[in-house]
Amino acid sequence: MIELSKGIELDFEKAMPELVAAMLGMGWNVNKDDSTDTTEDDFDLDSSVFMLDKSGKLPDKHHVVYYNNLKSPDSEVCIEHMGDNLTGAGEGDDEVILFDLRKVPDYIHKLVITVTIHRAQKRNQNFGMVEDAFLRVVNVSSKEEVLRFDLDEEFTLETSVILTEIYRTDTGWAIKALAEGVDGGLDELVSKYTA
């Protein structure tokens, strides 16, 4: 297994050429030492994938795969969100997204993976209250965890995080660990990537 850290880029073709279909799992816990009225049961993090074209923009709103749009708009369905976890309770993956890089349409050049806090402003929540967040990639063929990114960044008031981006190269695909905090939710991220 390869461990990523912020800023690290990895070429799939060189490091793991067999990786084409994968399960992307994300998990997190709520910082129980935080002195707020927030409980784990009402702390809802949501994972999303933004499918961007060559200019780094969304072709349209259907190219955001998230809890209200579980499948990519292409006929092959290259990305599928397996559903919303409302609490993050329990061990292991809290949300899962399946993707197959062989099926990604030619006009899509980048897949940006994000996590947002649902109703963060209303609930007075932010990523300073989250701990043990991670993203892992499991090879569907071998069922092995091949890549892991433990999000050990110190966030404070941010309510969204751009975790990683998977992008096309001359030889295939590569991944870059970002851990970029954003003040705002899903709407702000959509605006960021809208032409």
UniProtKB/TrEMBL annotation:
What CDD domains does this protein map onto?
TerD_like
Q: So which domain of life are we looking at?
A: Bacteria
Q: Domain TerD, which positions?
A: 2-193
PANTHER family in the record = CAMP-BINDING PROTEIN 1-RELATED, STRESS RESPONSE PROTEIN SCP2
Q: Would you tell me the protein name for this molecule?
A: Bacterial stress protein
Q: Which organism is it from?
A: Crocosphaera subtropica (strain ATCC 51142 / BH68) (Cyanothece sp. (strain ATCC 51142))
